[in-house]
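Action item from last meeting closed. Structure (86 res):
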């Protein structure tokens, strides 16, 4: 291993990457919390799309938001591909 490669590896802070991830997750949680608190109508569609399963009996409720979760997965995939594309 040459000295130049060793110096590049040595100066890379390994602690910064997890810190950035944690700060991003905290910001995302804060944003969702603010949306739920200040503008709950923005997420009122969740669970009410065609394909979402809602079964209610006397003693139990089963809720499976299949279509809503597929839509959220597609949106998150598009956003993450835009931000982390090399």
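Sequence:
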């Amino acid at each position: 291993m040459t000295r130049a490669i060793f110096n590049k590896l040595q100066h890379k802070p390994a602690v910064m990457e997890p810190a950035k991830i944690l700060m991003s997750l905290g910001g995302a949680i804060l944003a969702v919390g603010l949306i739920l608190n200040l503008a709950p109508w923005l997420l009122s569609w969740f669970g009410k799309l065609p394909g979402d399963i809602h079964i209610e009996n006397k003693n139990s409720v089963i809720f499976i938001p299949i279509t809503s979760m597929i839509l959220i997965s597609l949106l998150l995939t598009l956003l993450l591909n835009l931000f982390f594309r090399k």
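Note appended to the action item: Residues 74 and 81 are 11 Å apart (CA to CA).
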